Amino acid sequence: MNFLARIRLVAIAVMLFAIAVIAPAVAQKLGPDGAPDPTASVTSERSLLKQMPRAEGRIDIPDTKAGVLIQPAGRSWDYFHEVLLHWSGAIVLLGTIVLLGVAYLIIGKIRIAAGRSGRKVLRFKAFERFSHWLTAASFVVLGLTGLNVTFGKRLLLPVIGPDAFSSVSQWAKYIHNFTSAAFVVGLVLITVIFFKDNLLEKVDIDWVKQGGGFIKSKHAPAGRFNLGEKLVYWLSLAAGVAVSVSGVLLLFPFYGTDIADMQLAQIVHAVVAILFIALILAHIYIGTLGIEGAFEAMGTGEVDLNWAKEHHDLWIARQLASKEGQREPSTTAAE
Amino acid sequence: MLIKRSERHRSRGRLAGLQADKSSGSLDRRIFLKRAGVTTGALAVLGNLRLGGIRKAEAGPPPPAGAEVITRKNVCTHCSVGCSVIALVANGVWIGQEPDYDSPINRGSHCCKGAAVRDDVLSQRRLRYPVKLVNGKWTRISWETAIDEIGDKLLQIREKSGPDSVYWLGSAKFTNEAAYLNRKFAAFWGTNNSDHQARICHSTTVTGVANTWGYGAMTNSYNDIRNSKTIMLMGGNPAEAHPVSLQHILEGQELNRANLIVIDPRMTRTAAHATEYVRVRPGTHIATIYGMLWHIFENGWEDKEYLRQRVYGVDEIRKQVAKWTPQEVERVTGLPEAQVKHIAEVFAKEKPATLIWAMGQTQFATGTANVRASCILLLATGNVGHAGDGANIFRGHTNVQGATDLGLDVTTLPLYYGLAEGGWRHWCGVWEVDYEWMKSRFPNKTLMETPGIPSTRWFDATLLPKDQVSQPDNVQAMFIMGHGVNTITRMPEAKRGIEKLELLVVCDPYPTAWSVLSDRKDGIYLLPACTSFEMDGSRTASNRSLQWGEKIVEPVFESKNDYDTMYLLARKLGFADRMFKNIKVENNAVSAEDILREINRGGWSTGYCGQSPERLKAHMKNQAKFDLVTMRAPKDDPEVGGDYYGLPWPCWGTPEFRHPGSGILYNTGLPVKDGGGTFRARFGVERIVKRKVMENGQEVEKDEHHNLLAEGSYSAGSEIKDGYPEFTLGVLKKVGWDKDLTPQELEIIQRISSTNPDAVSWSTDLSGGIQRVAIEHGCSPYGNGKARMIAWNLPDPIPVYREPIYTPRPDLVADYPTLPDARQFRVPNIGFTVQKTAVDRGIAKQFPLILTSGRLVEYEGGGEETRSNKWLAELKQDMYVEINPADAVERGIKDGGWVWVTGPESSSKARVKALVTERVGKGVAWMPYHFAGWYEGTDLRAKYPKGFDPIVLGESVNTLTTYGYDPATGMQEPKATLCQIKAA
Amino acid sequence: MKFLCDADRCIDCNACVTACKNENEVPWGINRRRVVTINDGKPGERSVSMACMHCTDAPCAAVCPVTCIFSTEDGVVLHSKDLCIGCGYCFYACPFGAPQYPRVGNFGSRGKMDKCTYCAGGGGPEPSGSAEEFEKYGSNRFGDGKLPLCAEMCSTKSLLAGDGEIIAQIYKERVLKRGYGSGAWGWKTAYHEDVVV
Q: ω before A329 within 30° of 0 (cis)?
């Protein structure tokens, strides 16, 4: 919603970081003998908070975060979390769904123009599919449990009541915490496996010029992955790294981080996660409703030859070429 | 143990009313749940995951259902302020504490220790049963076996080496009754080797102050500081050591817009609230005071009329002060002229001004002289004997004042009666034992009248060759009741001392560092003592008020109270019948009240005669009636009418005389019967000084007679309107007041001295008649004298500035050396040699940092008790050294990092954490003294009896502290030594 | 109900800390109240005792994903340990570092939040003053018409507790009398108001 407020919040977060590094520069007044004079500069909260984002001091218990006396940023974080995040999150997610709906209505399902050939081509090996689905499944779990912690109290709590909702959320928290490991594993696998095929190529420019396959009259050329898929790959990688890193920080609170770091980590985690979900919604749409024959690639691993020719002509050409040169065929006849 | 606090339901106050009625609008969880209450159903079954872990309640509130909750009142045991503790007890378990708003001393407040005393009793780390060390293993034994074995060993040592080879080290945590009993015990055993923490705390104050104006105690009270216009703290950090006193200090400062001047090497928590903070070098007290006096005399700011009427010897002080020009003061202390002049002017002009001190003045080889210098400053400015001024000496332990008063000291009998025959005869009269029998307990009359060995030197008396210890044999057994080993300097020597002993008995609620410091494999007995919360008895706060503490719960586990332990041992040693002749003992349980009554019967000299247990209990019951500032109850109250709270001594005459106690000492503004007084004529009426004068061109020696009686100053309502000597029957006869004595009183006086009844004085008259008559005529029983600026019986009659033994300024030693070597208290004091050797060897170069030590708010004394208290131990989990950032940077030391601190004696070293802070100036390091259980980098936890180790252990600062003893008292010097620090 | 720490009186004696531990049997490692010293050892050093300030419009309550934190009519902020899931959000939102968590299980995983209850117990459904309530939340002095023990036992009467207007008035009078005051620490953040003298 309020874009300016959001900018301001990010600015505050950045400032918090910056100032945390700079040693507190409190003016010192010394007596004539060089000894400190306690009445010379009695510190008031207001003057202190003007100089620094938070009032901090010495405390002798081992809990170092207890040394932060007052951090007004907590209120800002509250505002971010309860207002900005809720509204913008809702808008982004619902907006994405609406957009996809509109796309479906306008474009509809993109059929295999030549019809199914009946010949199947292996597009994703079992391990590739396993990696994808590991990531996908954990993503869904993380997404749902994550959304619960943000929106649950608005959506689910009124329905099932506080006790049940607490139980659900408690489980959700533990599931979220533990599933994160699976997600990170999946993310690493995907990154490695598909890295080479997602490097940008010249053909990607043509693909854009030709309307990315959405314009029925034009043929968009593509390798194993088209630019759209590559974007999903790279954005997912970036978002995945962001949520993973911020998530690990959140999972180990105050291990080498302070309150400002933790708030920032949570902001990054939440914002990126929302955008990530939106991205994945689009990804899911294209992979299922959007394009006929696409789901099979990750479902069974095999796609129809004609589908491959239409969507990944360069790839299938390479596949067929290499197959001819090989003893073992990588495509099999259907029936 | 889960228990319920149902009793508390009954009393629902205003707040409760508000809380109960919250049906409308507000969100209470009950309503909230109801409102939200759509089906919880199946999903709720998932609920209540115990993953979250809710804590288990321990033995705390609320009480078991139906149990009666009893309220009991005792006094906090952790410092001398004397805060009342209200305990809630259910089924014999202490379940909670409540603030005691009625107490005029603390008005409900506590520091962290007072607010946590419940765990002193509940602590699982308490020693539960007697144990002895056998082949390096702690073995459980019964009390009977313990007393038998210990008694046999003691008797064997006595047989072989004489009674002086057993050292009775008592405690400032004793009740008055236990302190008295402990001193009496040593007397009946036949030795003066009986001491307690006052030695290392305020022995120099007692000696210095008493030698100035009569009594060695705080002249006013914590509450009275509310009247001050200038509050100067030199050598004290009450914000940490006496936190509740700050309530009076800060409120007083706020209400009067008073000056609060803190002079300290450390920017302490107290200094944080000061209007002026002056950073000094440790050990330069006298130079600072003389620097102030220089400006005072120079500008005529002294109180000339006061000096004329009430002070002796100012002229000689003027001569001494004249040497302390601003330049010299700056050379020695580093304080600039303007600052010294400013604080001197404020102190002299903005009256009433009080001087507050604690260990920052006393714990020096010049401790007595330091304290005397402070008294001289107060006298010069006329700041003694009025509301709002005085020497407000903050004592350390709960009852260090009382234990000192009751003679737990190597130089006196109870209540400052000397060791001379007269003192012994007085107490033998009170105890109703034959003087000759008492004499027979000692090796000879000389040793009976010779001060014993101070607690600071016990290990020297153990380790030195026999011929260097002026008693039949070395100390071979230590019997310790409530005293740490780690609060005494030179611990490496103490360790060797313990190893050389034949027997070590520690009677304490905790095993203490005594049990682990040495490499002994046997010969240590630990007897579980209970805390003062588990026994009845009175305690004297710093302001001389006595407060009666009632037993909150029975002693826990197998612990016993001090009275009963001493009784059992006396019985074993064969003098219980004589010792407890007038003290009721039922089923081996000793009556505390009876002990106090015996104290009352003999405590004339210090006015401990009027505080009967009945009166003290009435005070505790009627606390609310006492005024916050004057501490006095309204005159018309039937029980405590006109009394000062706690009957601060001197409380003259018999309890029936109903003297109100003395809120402020030497206050001539009030009649003696209302708590007024004069300076005590303690040092004779005349001083004869031999002086060389020129007569007819020839030098001849002439006697000068100096009158020591007050001139034209007297307490309100006094019938003698001038100075007068102390009262004896003879003096009463001279002024014709002897007729006022009752026949019974006269008869008792006659009985005390049938040969020379005229010599029977106010302090030896067991009838109290002489006191009564003197007071009824408006006079102080002890006379009306002048305070002495010159104490000619002390090593330095006029305070002389002397560098600490280990000084960072060897260049000043030539001008200000310590006193020559001498023998004191049965042992040699070779301070001069040590200082000279240190200078010659360039110790200050190898150990360039000044090391000084002090107190933390969370811990107390040796710290065993407080470090075993789970609520306190959490707050300070590591021993540390404070070091200035500049010194830290030079040494590559980081805040929180480990460092080695090394000391100049015994190759001592300690591994502690660094606290890099500007609290200390450059060149100064500071360490708290409450830690023990580590020794030179080794954790000794495994050596404690299993399960009874304190929660927090750490190095002791006294591993590093060094030689240095005050010649007048044997006080140690832990406040100024040298050290080096390097990153570990 | 509010807290006000007069920093010009606070001497870092920690009485409030142990009084809280004692009254509520708070376990080792959980610090419902603490004292922080600003500018330690330097000019202007001030110590401030801090716990839950029982904020007006409490941010912890706002961010709680299971809405287990609530304000009573008296302005005391309480929470339900039955509902708390230990997510830690309240700590991020709290301007005063009040929420505490027992460390349980793996990682830095938190147990149910614990914090100052203003010595007012849990606010139900456990009966007021019951052992069940004590076990979860600690003492219920409030129900007996008493104030939090930390404030009651404060050594220098620095920590004030009670009705906001009354304690603000006490503080104002103090400041006027003595001529200085470093302010009501945390009030602006907690209550959107300041004690202006």
A: no
Q: Which domains does chain A have, with CATH numbers?
A: 122-328 (1.20.950.20)
Q: How confident is the model at residue B390 (pLDDT cuts 50, 70, 90)?
A: very high
List A110's β-bridge partners, or say none: A291
Rounded CA separation B774/A121 (Å) = 123
Q: Which pair of structure tokens corresponds to residue B162?
A: 């004489």
- Cα angle B364, B285, B830; round to 5: 30
A156 near C CB under 8 A: no
Q: Over pLDDT 70: what percentage of chain B?
A: 94
Q: What share of chain A is helix, strand, coil (3-state, %, to 5)?
A: 65, 5, 30
For B947, the 3-state DSSP assignment is coil
Q: List b or e across B439-459, with b for residues whose CB sees 16 or more CB atoms inside 10 angstroms.
A: bebbbeeebbbbbbbbbbbbb
Contacts of C87 in chain A (CB under 8 A): 149, 169, 173
Chain A contact for B877 (CB, 8 A cutoff): yes
Chain B's closest residue to C61, CA to CA, is: B27
pLDDT in tens, B685-704: 888 888 888 888 888 888 88
Cα nearest neighbour of A167 on chain C: C83
Distance CA B695, CA B703 (A): 13
Describe the strand order of the beta sheet including A120-122 as a list of residue ranges: A302-304, A120-122, A331-332
Mean pLDDT of B865-870: 95
Q: Residues of B571-586 as b/e, b for ≥16 C-beta within 10 angstroms?
A: bbbebbebbbeebebe
pLDDT at B903 over 80: yes
The ipTM, to two decimals, is 0.96
Buried b (16+ CB within 10 A) or exposed e, B797-835: bbbbbbbbbbbbbbebbeebbbbeeeebbbbbbbbeebb
The pTM is what? 0.89
Query: Tokens at residue B972, please?
Result: 């140690």
Is the predicted pLDDT of residue B40 greater than 60, yes or no? Answer: no
Is the pLDDT confidence value at B381 over 80?
yes
Per-residue CA distances from A137 to A142, A192, A250, B178, B968 (Å): 9, 19, 21, 75, 84
Strands B477-481 vs B503-508: parallel, antiparallel or unpaired = parallel
Q: What is the pLDDT of residue A324?
A: 67
Please indicate whether residue A9 or residue A228 has the higher confidence score (pLDDT): A228
- Phi then psi for residue B883, to 5 deg, are -140, 140
Alpha-carbon gap, residue A206 to B711, rounded angstroms: 116
Task: Tell if the CB–CB gap between B49 and A61 is shorter than 8 Å.
Answer: no
Q: C-chain residues within 8 Å CB-CB of B269?
A: 11-13, 47
Sheet-wide strand order for B84-90: B69-75, B84-90, B93-98
pLDDT greater than 60 at residue B39: no
Q: From the CA of B144, how many Å to the nearest CA of chain A?
A: 44
- Which residues, 6 or more positions from C126, have their beta carbon under 8 angstroms from its beta carbon? C132, C133, C136, C137
pLDDT at B61: 66
Mean pLDDT score, B842-862: 95
Contacts of A51 in chain C (CB under 8 A): none
How big is chain C, counted in residues? 197
Instruction: Tell me, yes or no, if B54 comes closer than 8 A to chain A by beta carbon.
Output: no
Chain A residues whose CB is inside 8 A of the B35 CB are none
Q: Which of residues 14-33 of C touch A (CB under 8 A)?
A: 29, 31
Rg, chain B, Cα only: 29
Of the pLDDT bands very low, low, confident and very high (cuts 50, 70, 90), residue A227 is confident
Nearest-angstrom CA–CA distance, B788 and B379? 9
Question: Average pLDDT, stretch C20-31?
Answer: 94
Per-residue pLDDT tens digits for A126-143: 999 999 999 999 999 999
User: Could you tell me the two tokens for B870?
Assistant: 């789970």
